[in-house]
Write the structure tokens for this entry.
Amino acid sequence: MTRLIDFGEAVRPIVNARIVTSTYAIAIGYCVADVAYEAYKLRKRGYVTEDTRVPMSMTQLVVERSTFQAVASIIVPFAVIHTTVDVSKKMMKGTRFAKWGPSIAGLMGEYLTF
């Protein structure tokens, strides 16, 4: 689901800005849902980790999971795709690839973030 943000960022030059914004809203919603689900599972387990059975506070879980989701699902993909689209847009200016080329490069760059 967070790959939707990559797609939105890649097609930014050829679609309405509201579409790109909506992909961010969906991806952030997914991250919030993931953190909430992990918190629910921790509570059901009696505040111990799934694998090692080490005690964990709800605060620690929320901070760890939120940080992971923010970095891995939002920030890094955004930086890679946005930079790819921006640089390729400048490189392709005045060529026949100026309209679609940056988006194609951005979509190809999406696979680099896997």
Notes: The chain has one domain: 3-113. Residues 3-113 form one domain.
